[in-house]
Amino acid sequence: MQARTVQHRIVITGAGLAAPNASNLPEFRTRLLEGRSEIRMIELRYMQPCPAGVCTFDETKYRRKRENKRGTRAGCIGVYCANEALIDAGIDFSGYDRARTGVYIGLTEHGTVETENEVYNISQYGYNIDYWTHHHNPRTVLNNPAGEITMNLGITGPHYSVGAACAAGNAALIQGVQMLRLGEVDLALCGGISECVGSFGIFASFRAQGALAEHHDPAKASRPFDAARNGIVISEGGCVFTLERLDRALARGAKIYGEITGYAMNSDARDFVLPYGERQAQCMELALRRADLAPGQVTIINTHATGTRQGDVEECRAIRQVFGESAPPWINNTKSNIGHAMGAAGVLELAGNLPSFVDNMVHPTINLEQPDPECALAGLVVDAPKQLDRVDVILNNSFGMVGINSVIIVERYDRDRRQAS
C-alpha cells in the first residue's frame, strides 16, 4: 500500500443534516439510540396516502423565504446542511479560500419534482405553456443543489453533483477525498440530498415494481430484514460534511469526527434494478484493502438494506461472504428509523453512526419482529443500543439502481496512527 502522509489523511470535521426525525447531529443521534421513528403518512397526487419521511427544519435560518421560493427544495435542504456543517466545524473562511473550496453533492434524482409541479400547474390552465415558469431550467439542471450552496456561501471553487442512484452520498464523499488528496481543493463540502417525497412519480414507480412499503402504522413501515417487510419507505433529507486534510485540521485545532481511510465503488453490470451480492462483497473487500484493514478489525457495519426482499438478502450474503459466519462486527440499519433518503441515504446513515467513536454505542435496528432466516446476521443490533468498550472502525454500505455499489470506511482518529503508512 502506498504511504499515506499526514497531508494525505482526510478527516471529517463538521456535519450538518436534515433528517425526518432531526435537524442536527446530536438530536439525530439521540433519536437513533432511542429507536424513534418519525415516519408518517403523506398525501400525494393521484395516489392514496403513503408512509414517508419528511424533514422539519428552519428553512429560513440561512436563506430568505423569497430565495427558497425561487430555488428548489433540494437547494433549500442543501443550503441549510452546508451552513450547519461549516458552523459545526468552526469554519468561517478566515483560514480557507472560497476559491479553493469544492462542493460535491450526491443525487439520486433531480428535476422530477419541479417538472411534475409545472405540468400540474399548466393543467389547471388548459395546458397553456404561458403559465410555465421561467425558473424551470435552472431549477432542474443536475448541478442545481450544489450551485445553490455556492451562491448562498459565496464559494467560487468547483461545484457539481454526483449522480450515483442511492449510492450518491457516499460517491460525493469519495469525490471530496480524492480532490483533497490531489490538491485540487483545500476544503470540501460533500454530501447527499433528496427531495423525492415531492414526486408522486417516484412513489408510483416503486409501487409498480412491488417495492413500496405499506403498513397501517407508518412508524413500522420501514422494516429491513423482517420477514414481513414489503418495500421501501421513501424519505427526503440531506447531510453535508466538511472534509479537510489532517494537517490543516490539526493546525486550526479542529475537532475530528473520524478519518476516512478506505472507500470503493464498483458496478454489478447485470440488471437495472436487482442487486448482486457478489459485487457488493467485492466492493467491501476493495475498501478494506485500501484502508489496510482485515475484516475482523471492523467494529460496526451500517447496512444499506432498504426493506426489499431480494435487496436485503443479497447484502446479507455479501456481508457473510466478507466477514464470515462467526464473530462478525456489530451491524445496524438506519433506514428502519428514517426510511430511504435516496441520494442522502449513505451520508445520513454514516452521520448517525459517527458519534459511536465518542459514546461507544451501536444504535439499534428497529421494527425487526420476525427476522427473515435468509437475513440472519449474528451481530445485528436490534431494538436497544449495544454498549461497547470501544469503537474503532465503521464500514458504511450504500448501493443503488443500475448496479452501482459504494463503501466508505471511517476510523477513529488517532494522532499517532500510521503517520507514514
Write up this protein.
With 421 residues, the chain is an alpha/beta fold. The chain has two domains: 10-251, Peroxisomal Thiolase, Chain A, domain 1 (3-Layer(aba) Sandwich), CATH 3.40.47.10; 262-411, Peroxisomal Thiolase, Chain A, domain 1 (3-Layer(aba) Sandwich). Helices cover 32% and strands 21% of the residues. The chain has helices at 25-34, 65-70, 73-89, 112-123, 136-140, 144-153, 168-182, 200-208, 246-251, 277-290, 309-323, 335-338, 345-353, 356-359; strands at 10-18, 40-44, 47-53, 101-107, 159-163, 187-194, 234-235, 237-245, 258-267, 300-303, 330-333, 361-362, 386-387, 393-400, 404-411. The chain has a ten-stranded mixed sheet, sandwiched between helices. A three-stranded mixed sheet has the order 2-3-7. Strands 12-13 form a two-stranded antiparallel ribbon. It starts with 9 loop residues before the first strand and ends in a 10-residue tail after the last strand.
Cα end-to-end separation: 8 Å
Q: What is the CATH T-level topology of the largest domain?
A: Peroxisomal Thiolase, Chain A, domain 1
The top level CATH class name of the largest domain:
Alpha Beta
List the uncertain runs: none
> Helical percent range?
25-40%
Query: Would you identify the CATH architecture of the largest domain?
Result: 3-Layer(aba) Sandwich
Structural class: alpha/beta
Q: Count the E strands.
A: 15
Spatial strand sequence of the major β-sheet: 5-4-6-8-1-9-15-14-10-11
> What is the strand content?
15-25%
Count of runs of 4 or more consecutive helical residues = 14
Q: CATH homologous superfamily of the largest domain, by name?
A: Thiolase/Chalcone synthase
Mean pLDDT: 95
For the largest beta-sheet, the strand count, sense and barrel status come to: 10 strands, mixed
Q: What overall form do the CA principal axes indicate? A: globular
Question: Rg, please?
Answer: 20 Å
Number of domains: 2
Order of helices and strands: EHEEHHEHHHEHEHEEHEHEHEHHHEEEE
